[in-house]
Design brief:
Mean pLDDT: 82
Distance between the termini: 191 Å
Number of strands: 66
Length: 762
């Protein structure tokens, strides 16, 4: 009996309850519904089917097919399925029909079974009747299996002795004889077998007389380890380690990371070890263990993760404070794969960088204050750069202190002014201030502010800068405070009494910066003296007497001084003498003589009569009552004070009688009558002249009147005849005419004749 027929015999004990699927009129019955078969054998799957006979469509035509793929509407016929090519046969009997129903059978044979043939097989039969096609559910489940060798260890402490058992998932008919093979050599028979097992051994079982072997059982072969992706591994990428080993039973895998002390740490128990984001720290050796019941095999692989340099570590030697002039070394190191190359930069204030050198160290043999600043170490490999900053703070004594004033430009009194001292020093300097070389008690290390600067703050300032490394003084700065004039004052030189004719100087002084210009006022009226100069009267005069003040002014303001009264002392000037009443003085009347003179101090007066040295009166006025003709004469007064004296001119007092007065009145009456007559004649002459011109004649053809004196301005004549004190100013006329007037006198007096001649135009 060959292997295939034996396999068919094995199936007799695998039948189960028939599976029936029906809709009352159409029906498929599978027997059995579950089939188990050995790999390489041949299996038959059978069914019966029936359907309702339809007399309208005799004879009924039936098509049959088996399928595992597709659905009821589009099944894939096994005869056309490429997975079954050459291995499938249908064996269907003739359909038998009664009056109402038809019956048929059909068997599916599958040869040379494969484990992939395990599936659910269904039968379908379409007919020529309308709607006459049917698929039988649930179908037949086919399971394809091998002979299997079960391994156990009777003594767990001694895993080299092994118990082997040959069995199958499918029950085999009878008691078939089993034989055992070790490394391909027959070593025994029976269902069970015990032997000493070594790692290179392999065992299998078979059915005697048949070419039906179980798969070999053996320890895992040396695992194959792969890394994906291949090539260089960069930090941050996804990396998968895969381990595979030929083993039966199938191997179980465990991944370990081997540490430097050869201690291994379990990573996972899977066939793959996945790094979704691999790190540089994941570099190292990894061990894959492939293990089954028979033994273990391992394989080691190394992961070299490439990565850009880590943040560099920068150190300064020596540590602590760095003093100008010392030797300083900057060192840079970075963890990188591949190893980094180093470049040193100095970072400027504009964030631009200047290359200092290329190497792991930057050495300053004699460091300067200018070397203070930020330095950048760049560690770079082919994967990229990494940078780190370090700051060098070089300590040094103060350098070139300087004093500045803010705001710059002119400084005005009352403004806010700040004096600042600055010095390049590290650590920052403390400052001491000096004014005119005298130390000030201002707080050190602070700018000094004058909230309201004063004139007395004007001076020369400097500062002294000092720290723990040294000290130095600044240059001097002169702070010039500008201010408006203050408290102008007027002085006179020489002091004491001022006499007319002496030399006198008026001076104005005021505290001002810049110096003030001066304007002089006398009695509140400006003078045209030169500004900014004392004024000298080389010979002072009385009219220079008055109240003086000066006005001081510069670009920042102005101010007037208090007033100074300059009192010029002088002797009396020529006295002026008057008489009251004026005009002719009648005998018996009262006459007052008055004398006045400009003098400082005020004059005293004494009256004298011509050719008489005796004092007639002391005082400004001299009154003569009941005057007589004998008292009529020349008088004068003398004005005198402590400075000197001065006599007036003579004043003639002429005393007349009452008759003379009467004659004078008559004369005036006659003159007025004469004036009226002359005016009448003149008006008459004017009318005649106009009439002649109206008739086309010449004015000189008119009959001339007798020449008579004419006063065109009667008021002028009247004013002329009035006493001098009563005369009024007369408006100037273009042509004045004068005439002689003869007035009859009284019988006791001579006739006076006054002749008035015609004068030229005034």
């Amino acid at each position: 009996m060959n292997l295939r027929s034996a396999a068919r015999g094995f199936l007799a004990f695998l039948l189960s309850v028939p599976a029936l699927q029906s809709n009352d009129d159409w029906r498929v019955t599978y027997s059995p519904s579950n089939v188990c078969a050995l790999r390489g054998a041949t299996v038959n799957i059978s069914c019966t089917y029936e359907y309702l006979a339809n007399v309208q469509y005799p004879p009924t035509t039936v098509t049959t097919l088996w399928f595992t793929k597709g659905d009821h509407y589009q099944p894939v016929d096994l005869l056309s399925d490429t997975d079954y090519t050459g291995r499938v046969e249908y064996s269907c009997g003739q359909v038998r029909c009664t009056r109402s129903r038809c019956y048929g059978t059909c068997t599916l044979r599958i040869k040379d079974l494969r484990t992939s043939d395990s599936a659910v097989y269904k039968f379908r039969f379409p007919t020529n009747q309308p709607g006459g096609e049917y698929t039988g559910d649930p179908g037949v489940k086919l399971s394809v299996t091998d002979l299997q060798v079960k391994v156990s260890f009777p003594q767990p402490t001694d895993p080299t002795w092994t118990d082997l058992e040959c069995h199958s998932m499918c029950g085999l008919a009878g008691d078939p004889p089993y034989i055992w093979f070790r490394n391909g050599q027959n070593v025994g028979q029976g269902v069970n077998y015990r032997d000493y097992f070594q790692s290179e051994d392999s065992f299998s079982c078979a059915v005697r007389g048949h070419d039906l072997h179980s798969p070999l059982v053996y320890t895992p072969k040396t695992p194959s380890v792969t890394v994906s992706p291949s090539g260089e591994i960069e930090e941050g990428s996804s990396v998968t380690l895969s381990c595979s080993s030929d083993a039966n039973p199938a191997a179980k895998y465990t991944w370990f990371k081997v540490n430097t002390d050869r201690y291994s740490r379990v990573m996972n128990q899977r066939q793959q070890l996945i790094f979704s984001y691999i790190l540089s720290s994941d570099s190292g050796q990894y061990l894959c263990d492939a293990r089954n019941e028979l033994g273990t095999r391992s394989k080691m692989t190394t992961i070299n993760v490439k990565y850009i340099p880590k943040t560099p570590s920068v150190t300064v030697s020596p540590s602590g404070e760095i003093e100008e002039g010392s030797s300083v070394t900057l060192s840079c190191s970075s963890d990188a794969n591949p190893a980094a190359k180093y470049t040193w930069f100095k970072v400027n204030t504009g964030r631009s960088s200047r290359v200092m050198n290329q190497g792991q160290q930057l050495v300053f043999s004699n460091i300067l204050s200018s070397d203070s600043g930020q330095y950048l170490c760049e560690a770079k490999n082919k994967l990229g750069p990494k940078k780190e900053l370090i700051t060098i703070n070089v300590k040094y004594a103060p350098k070139t202190p300087s004093v500045t004033v803010s705001p710059s430009g002119e400084i005005k009194e009352g403004s806010s002014v700040t004096l600042s001292c600055s010095s390049d020093a590290n650590p920052a300097a403390k400052y001491t201030w000096f004014k005119n070389n005298q130390p000030l008690v201002w707080k050190p290390s602070q700018p000094y502010s004058f909230s309201s600067v004063r004139p007395e703050d004007r001076g020369t300032y400097r500062c002294h800068a000092e720290n723990k490394y040294g000290h130095l003084s600044s240059n001097s700065l002169f702070m010039d405070v500008k201010y408006a004039p203050k408290t102008p004052s007027v002085t006179v030189s020489p002091s004491g009494e001022i006499e007319e004719g002496s030399s006198v100087t008026l001076s104005c002084s005021s505290d001002a910066n810049p110096a003030a210009n001066y304007t002089w006022f006398k009695n509140n009226q400006p003078l045209v003296w030169k500004p900014s100069q004392p004024y000298t009267f080389p010979s002072v005069r009385p009219e220079d007497r008055g109240t003086y003040r000066c006005h001081a002014e510069n670009k920042y303001g102005h101010l007037s001084s208090s007033s100074l009264f300059m009192d010029v002392k002088y002797a009396p000037k020529t006295p002026s003498v008057t008489v009251s009443p004026s005009g002719e003085i009648e005998e018996g009347s009262s006459v007052t003589l008055s004398c006045s003179s400009d003098a400082n101090p005020a004059a005293n007066y004494t009256w004298f009569k011509e050719h008489d040295d005796s004092v007639k009166e002391s005082g400004q006025n001299y009154t003569i009552t009941n005057i007589t003709s004998e008292l009529g004469r020349n008088y004068y007064c003398q004005a005198h004070n402590a400075i000197g004296l001065h006599n007036s001119t003579f004043l003639l007092i002429k005393v007349t009688s009452s008759q003379t007065t009467t004659v004078t009145v008559r004369t005036i009456v006659v003159l007025l009558a004469t004036i009226l007559l002359l005016v009448f004649l003149w008006m008459r002459r004017k009318r005649a002249s106009r009439k002649a011109r109206g008739q086309g004649g010449r004015p000189d053809t008119v009959e001339e009147l007798l020449p008579v004196p004419v006063y065109e301005n009667v008021s002028a004549l009247t004013n002329r005849l009035a006493p001098a004190a009563q005369r009024e100013p007369i408006e100037e006329q273009d042509d004045h005419h004068y005439a002689s007037i003869h007035t009859s006198l009284s019988e006791n007096q001579d006739q006076d004749q006054t002749e008035m001649g015609e004068t030229s135009e005034m």
